[in-house]
Prior knowledge:
Layout: H1 2-19, E1 46-55, E2 65-77, E3 80-93, E4 96-111, E5 114-131, E6 155-171, E7 175-182, E8 188-190, E9 196-198, E10 202-209, E11 211-212, E12 218-228, E13 233-243, E14 247-254, E15 258-268, E16 271-280, E17 290-301
Antiparallel strand pairs: 1-2, 1-17, 2-3, 3-4, 4-5, 5-6, 6-7, 7-10, 8-9, 10-12, 11-12, 12-13, 13-14, 14-15, 15-16, 16-17
Amino acid sequence: MKKSVSFFFFIIIVNLAAVGQQDPQFTNNMEYKLGVNPGFAGSENAINGIILNRFQWAGFEGAPKTMVFAVDAAADLLGTPSGVGFNIVSDEIGYEKNIWVNLNYSYKTTLGADNLGIGLSVGFFNKSINGSWTVPEDDNGIYTQPDSDPGVPQGEVSQMAFDLGFGLYLSGSNYFAGISATHLNQAKILFDNQASTYLARHYYLSGGYNIKLGNPLFELRPSILFKTDLASWQCDFNTNVVYDGKYWGGLTYRINDALAILMGAELINGLRFGYSFDLVTSAIGRYGYGSHELFLNYSLNLEKNRTRKYKSIRFL
């Protein structure tokens, strides 16, 4: 029975890899913009660091697990206003593990009173698979191995590919908007046994707005993230209510996938913690699996005229 379940899950993974989006998804995407848009680097005039962990479909064997470490900062390179950033993403699903590492550069300019970042990311994507595939027993109680299928890697295989991304990030005093693409070069990954896959190009559109409410201590922050690989698409609608700039809670609706609850707080000046729980609305949700996401973020303001040493300026 266990082998049958493993094979069933493997079929799901193959379908996701064949027709689904390859980039991991994040409910707290408004907190982690650098991962999909290098134009964001340095846009907050601060040194920002984030550690994020996502546990998707918790309790399901082989479910996706994603860990992120990212940092970005404003810089002045050769007299040019710029932003730099660094990403490490580890994404596991079933017998597959992906590691994505890239450097980000953003050229910063202005459009009227607003700021525009034109960004490029350069790095590598490593895909490894380590599993022994089995199929359910037939009517005679016999298991077979898919040895004849060259499209199924056997044993442990790993391969690395060069990876490129591009993005534009526009921000003003109370809004942000972005357009970007990952895996621009659509690198092909060829394993030793001639099984192969490739990194599909992914496109992202994002935007958000800060709305002051009647009580000056409260602020409404709706945002949206649309993503597609031109074979499938997904869209997240998020709204957070922020109190006193330090405490927040809200909801995210991901079309045909999940409804999420978000919450967080600024623990000390510049250090923030957040948590979200996805109530899965897709077919797999019938089995009671949910998704958890936690992040820890720190921001150090680089403005010379700051009135205090540390200042949290997250969101815009």
